[in-house]
Every structure is written in C-alpha cells, then in structure tokens.
Write a structure and sequence with these properties.
By secondary structure, the chain is an alpha/beta fold. The two termini are 40 Å apart. The strands form two sheets. Strands 2-3-4-1-5 form a five-stranded parallel β-sheet, sandwiched between helices. Strands 6-8-7 form a three-stranded antiparallel β-sheet. About 2% of the residues have low confidence. The chain folds into three domains: 96 residues; 226 residues, Rossmann fold (3-Layer(aba) Sandwich), CATH 3.40.50; 71 residues, Arc Repressor Mutant, subunit A. Helix content is 52%, strand content 9%. Bound molecules: adenosine-5'-triphosphate (ATP) and magnesium ion. Magnesium ion (MG) binds next to helix 4.
Length: 429
C-alpha cells in the first residue's frame, strides 16, 4: 500500500527518475520528436560524435534513452547504417574513471555482441563466437575490472591504486584488440553499422577544463573506434566548451541544445503521466497547479515534479483525499507561500547576499564573477564571499570554469526564496 493507491494512482505520477527504455517511457516522453530525429540523423549521417547540452533536469537523459529505445526497435528493419545502442550509459567522474572507462566500454561491447548476436546474424553481419566472447569476459583482468568498476564506468569501488593497476593491466593486455577485431569483422565495410554509446553527465567532472581534458584523453582510443558512435551529454556549458577545444575539432558535432519544455508540452507531460497511472483518482497536482509550480521554478521539469510529489505527501499527511482540483490548487498556493517563506527567512544570509540573489534573478538567474562592478561589488573576491553564503544555503550553484569559480546560477531553492521575496509574484519568462 502506498500513498498513491490512497490517492487513486498505481504509482507516483511525479516520479523524478529519467524515463525508462520501455513503451511506457516512450508514451511519457512529450515534445522531443524533433530532438530524437536530429539525434538519430546525426548518429547515422556523420562521422563526428553527437553532443547534447542542456540544463540540469531538463530531460537530456530521457531523450537519449527513448531515442535509443527507438533505434533498437527499428533496427530490425535493417536500416543502413544499423545503430545498436549499448544499454547502460557511461560516466566519467574521476581521473581513474577515464582510464577505467576504456575497459568498461570494451566490456560493454563484448556484452552487446552477445545481446545482439541473433539479430546481427539475421541481417547477415558476422559475429564473434559466443565461446570466444565468454573466454574474453572470463579472463582474470576483465573479471578484476568488473569487480572494481560498475558497468557504467563510474563508482570506482576498488581502491585507487587497485583500480589503476587493473586499468594498466587491461591497457597492456591487448584485450581491447580482440574486441576491436570483432567490430571490424562485423561492421564490414566500415560504416555499415555501429554500437551507440552514451557518455552522460559530463558536468560531474565539475569544470569545463577537466571535461575537455577527459575527452582529449579518450580522443584517440574509444572516441576513435570505427565501430562506435558516441552521444556525449552534459549540463552547464561543459559540453559546449569541451567541444570547442582545438584538439577535438572535427570529432564532435555542434551540440544539440535541449531547451526546457514549453508550458504546453510540460502540461502535456503531466497529463500523459496522469493518464498512464491514474486508477480514477483526482491528481494531487493537476494542470493548473503544475503550471503554477513550473513557472515559479523557472521551467525546471525535475524540480517541478519533485515539488508535486512533496505536496502530495503533505496532502496525504493532512488527510486531504478526494478533494477537487481547485481545492488542491488553493491548498498548494498556501503550501508554496509557507515553503518559500522558509527559504526567504534564512537567517544565515546577509543583506548583501540577498541583494546578490535578487540581482542574479534580474540577470536571468545567473552571474559571472568578472562582472562584479555590474553587481555593485568592489572586486570579484567580495562578490564570491557573498555568493559563497548563498551557495552554503543551497540557494545558488557555483560553476567552476577554466580559471576557477567564475559563474553561478540560481538553484531551485533560490527560485523559491525569490518567490517569497518578490511578494509571491510568478516570474514570467
Ligand atoms: N520530454 C519529456 N516528457 C516527459 N517527461 C520528461 C521529459 N523529459 C524529462 N522528463 C522527466 O523529467 C525528469 C528529468 O529528466 P532527465 O533525468 O531526463 O533530465 P536530465 O536533463 O538528464 O537531468 P540531469 O541533468 O540531472 O541528468 C524526469 O522525471 C523525466 O522523467
Ligand atoms: Mg541526466
């Protein structure tokens, strides 16, 4: 029994996880047809890898997941080139990650040969023998690496030196060559097919400089593999900056920008979820309440869904079940007023700190520390001190650039504080 059953749903319609690679995920994805088409066109038509840029929580991972789901489903039409997505996505979080990533990628390709074997054979592609793949997968070095690294290439659970040893052993073992030769035999002539790999959340590397360095490091290895096409995805300008590196010129397509869903599409996304999961209940947050939240939270879909869920819990705690949409909207407005007051009354922020937040809001929600004069500061350090106050209270997020901390963005809680500070005015974008 969950609160959702009480509220007339078979699961949360406000789940914040990225959409799954299933028919349901595909039904829930709204407003991204063009992006999917562009993504697939680039993968099929260019030798440069695809890059995707968009703010946190805007829907990048969901879009890629559903594009992959479609590619996989359509691949039985023997389209040329054939695009076979590797299900798990890769991430790089540390320097160890870059080294281990290579091993994780070849391992995932070996697994993909098993997963797609029958389909590949049916279309007339050569595939490696299962016994050879199993032998490769069971070699001590691969087993060692698999134990230390999650398939996604993150979460180095072994100690640093252990994982470094494992990746060095892999590099020296020639094991990559085996997978390379399988790909060369399968996708012959070159370009008749690819495995599609996703490198997600590049912003985890924190600065554009380290993201660029990581991509440069894999430029001549996994990014140069003729049988692999990459989709490289990140937030906060990291991908855009990395793609502009002279060393990566000609390797990466110009980023596909993922913008926030329009209000109409965002409401469509909510309605699709209500249709999918309702067992007859009135949603705690329907289209009117959702629009109200989406505007206050500056069109961040994930944060809006999160607040819908928080509000649903509150409603359930208060025992409000079975009320109509307008009653829910009125309750939500009071709830948001109280919630935003809590953030706006934070005693740890000085008047200068609040002024900086207000000025950032007036500056489209961001600031650059180089513009300290514009924000009324005598120098960048003074501005950074104020920004640090706001950051400690999670009202803004700093984005370290190539030369240290050089910009900041208003965080979801900052938009909430702003809502209260503005006398509960809904921002118009
Ligand atoms: N086009 C869409 N239609 C419906 N729901 C969507 C859409 N895009 C994203 N969502 C939902 O919005 C939330 C955020 O999506 P997702 O995780 O894909 O964003 P993201 O940009 O990858 O975020 P992050 O930057 O944190 O990795 C998820 O709950 C997802 O289900
Ligand atoms: Mg994501």
């Amino acid at each position: 029994m969950t609160i959702w059953t009480d509220l007339g749903f078979n699961q949360s319609p406000y789940d914040t996880k990225s959409l799954p690679p299933t028919a349901i995920g595909e039904r829930l994805l709204v407003g991204r047809e063009k992006h999917i088409q562009r993504l697939i066109n680039r993968l099929a038509s260019s030798s440069s890898h695809v890059t995707i840029e968009g703010e946190a929580g805007v829907g990048k991972t969901s879009l890629i997941t559903i594009a992959n789901y479609r590619m996989k489903r359509n691949s039985d039409k023997a389209r040329s080139p054939i695009l076979l997505p590797i299900e798990k996505s890769f991430q790089i979080t540390t320097q160890d990650g870059v080294k281990l990533l290579e091993a994780a990628v070849y391992r995932a390709v070996a697994e993909a040969f098993i997963r797609y074997r029958e389909a590949l054979q049916a279309w007339g592609y050569d595939t490696p023998k299962v016994a050879d793949i199993n032998k490769w997968m069971n070699s001590p070095i691969i087993k060692n690496i698999s134990a230390g690294v999650s398939v996604a290439g993150v979460g180095v659970s072994a100690g640093r030196s252990e994982s470094l040893n494992a990746s060095t052993a892999f590099a020296e073992s020639g094991l990559a060559n085996m997978v390379r030769s399988w790909m060369a035999e399968c996708f012959d002539p070159p370009g008749c097919g690819y495995f599609v790999c996703v490198l997600d959340n590049l912003e985890l590397l924190v600065s554009s400089a380290s993201a660029r360095q990581a991509l440069e490091e894999i430029r001549d290895t996994i990014l140069a593999e003729p049988g692999l096409r990459w989709v490289i995805c990140g937030a906060r300008g990291v991908v855009r900056t990395a793609a502009a590196s002279p060393r990566l010129q000609g390797r990466l397509c110009h980023p596909l920008e993922v913008e926030p869903l329009s209000m109409g599409d965002a409401i469509g996304a909510l309605e699709a979820r209500i249709d999918e999961f309702s067992t007859g209940g009135a949603p705690p947050v329907g289209p009117i309440g959702f629009q109200y939240l989406y505007e206050i939270l500056k069109c961040n879909l994930r944060n809006t869904l999160q607040k819908c869920e928080d509000f649903s819990f509150w409603l359930h705690d208060e025992g409000v079940i079975g009320a109509g949409e307008m009653e829910h909207v009125a309750l939500m407005q009071s709830w948001m007023t109280l919630l935003s007051d809590e953030y706006a009354n934070n005693p740890n922020i000085s008047p200068h700190g609040w002024k900086l937040l207000d000025d950032m809001v007036g500056n489209e929600g961001s600031c650059d520390f180089g513009d300290y004069e514009l924000f009324g500061f005598s120098g960048p350090d003074e501005m950074k001190r104020c920004a640090a106050e706001l950051e400690h209270q999670n009202l803004i997020e700093m984005s370290p650039g190539d030369t240290g901390m050089d910009s900041a963005l208003v965080a979801p809680n900052g938009w909430l504080a702003r809502f209260s500070r503005s006398g509960y005015q809904i921002p118009r974008s």
